[in-house]
């Protein structure tokens, strides 16, 4: 049974949201391909990758070959080898920003054109009205008929201009929504869906300006290089995604950021020193107890842990002093055996 276009559109939107994929044309085309042909080779390969509730991410899509995979046989049972970089690996936020900048320029020019047309109509009407007023002062009986005609013409022009303004305003509202989405994408890490440094720094600035109690926790995955070296970067990316999900679940109500590589940062609000430390400890315990396996082989990865440094905001702090203190505590945790957290004493 063929899906209605609206149903397919909604399913694509849900898929993108569930897998935290940005709504750029390449991702849309990929999801459209697998949902419009659910029995096709590409759809079967994607289903094998998400078996067990794992989210797809950009590297998975790249390995599947993106929308081009429809024209090439893709084995469903085996993990596809990673091809050369595809167009999906172009920085998505940059491409989206460029497109929206062009649309914004077009919208500004459209508004300017409407305003110029209204100004021209008003100026023309003013000239005609002045001429007609002079005729009325001379007692020209035709002046009244001319005034009625001018008024009718101006009302038509006003109606047409109002219609053009309504169209331009509607287009501007659509553009505003796109810009809002682009702003969110620019502040989100594409792999984990967490905040990136830009989003985190903006929230950090609000903490400095406010009066709320805040803590910073820096968390670094222990011996992550070993995972990448032994299992490959694809497995390493999925480990980072799993860790990001665990941190987001365990730290609900607080901002979790992928700060770079295998380092995560947590901005903890409205908790005491002891509560902030306990929050990070619970997240560490949850991760350590999670049995992560290599999807392709089922082989367990062994315990995955992270070390952490936790510090409270001080009235005289700058971003540099705050991070230096948290980093020193993290460094101490690494030096004293990893898989542990230290906080201010």
What percent strand?
Answer: 5-15%
**Count of runs of 4 or more consecutive helical residues:** 11
The rounded distance between the terminal residues' Cα atoms is: 65 Å
Rg over alpha carbons? 29 Å
Helical percent range?
Answer: 55-70%
Summarize the helix and strand pattern as letters: HHHHHHHEHHEEHEHE
Give a count of the beta strands, DSSP E runs of length 2 or more: 5
Protein described:
The protein is of the alpha+beta class and 345 residues long. Helix content is 60%, strand content 9%. The protein has helices at residues 5-18, 25-36, 41-50, 58-64, 92-137, 142-186, 197-209, 224-231, 233-250, 273-289, 319-335; strands spanning 214-221, 255-260, 263-269, 306-312, 341-343. Strands 2-3-1-4-5 form a 5-stranded mixed beta sheet, with helices on both faces. The termini are far apart.
Question: What are the SSEs and their pairings?
Answer:
Elements: H1 5-18, H2 25-36, H3 41-50, H4 58-64, H5 92-137, H6 142-186, H7 197-209, E1 214-221, H8 224-231, H9 233-250, E2 255-260, E3 263-269, H10 273-289, E4 306-312, H11 319-335, E5 341-343
Parallel strand pairs: 4-5
Antiparallel strand pairs: 1-3, 1-4, 2-3
Helix pairs in contact: 1-2, 5-6, 8-9, 9-10
């Amino acid at each position: 049974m063929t899906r209605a276009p609206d149903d397919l559109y909604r399913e694509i939107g849900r898929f993108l949201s569930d897998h935290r994929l940005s709504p750029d044309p390449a991702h849309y085309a990929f999801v459209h391909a697998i949902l419009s042909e659910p029995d096709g080779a590409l759809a079967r390969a994607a289903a094998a990758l998400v078996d067990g509730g794992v989210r797809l991410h950009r590297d998975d899509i790249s390995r599947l070959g993106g929308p081009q995979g429809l024209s090439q046989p893709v084995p469903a049972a085996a993990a596809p080898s990673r091809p050369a970089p595809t167009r999906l690996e172009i920085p998505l936020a940059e491409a989206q920003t460029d497109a929206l900048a062009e649309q914004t320029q077009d919208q500004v020019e459209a508004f300017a054109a409407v305003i110029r047309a209204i100004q021209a109509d008003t100026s023309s009407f003013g000239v005609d009205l002045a001429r007609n007023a002079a005729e009325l002062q001379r007692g020209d009986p035709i002046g009244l008929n001319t005034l009625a005609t001018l008024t009718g013409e101006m009302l038509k022009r006003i109606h047409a201009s109002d219609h053009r303004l309504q169209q331009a305003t509607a287009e501007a509202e659509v553009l505003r929504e796109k810009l809002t989405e682009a702003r969110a994408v620019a502040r989100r890490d594409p792999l984990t869906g967490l905040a990136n440094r830009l989003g985190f720094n903006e929230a950090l600035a609000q903490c400095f300006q406010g009066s709320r109690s805040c803590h910073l926790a820096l968390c670094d995955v222990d011996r992550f290089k070993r995972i990448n070296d032994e299992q490959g970067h694809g497995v390493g990316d999925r480990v980072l995604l799993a860790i990001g999900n665990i941190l987001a679940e365990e730290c609900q109500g607080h901002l979790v950021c992928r700060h770079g590589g295998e380092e995560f940062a947590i901005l903890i609000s409205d908790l005491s020193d002891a509560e902030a430390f306990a929050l990070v400890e619970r997240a560490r315990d949850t991760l350590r107890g999670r049995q992560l396996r290599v999807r392709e082989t089922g082989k367990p990865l062994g315990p995955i842990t992270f070390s952490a440094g936790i510090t409270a905001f001080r009235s005289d702090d700058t971003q540099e002093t705050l991070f230096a203190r948290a980093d020193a505590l993290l460094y101490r945790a690494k030096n004293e055996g990893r898989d542990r957290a230290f906080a201010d004493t």
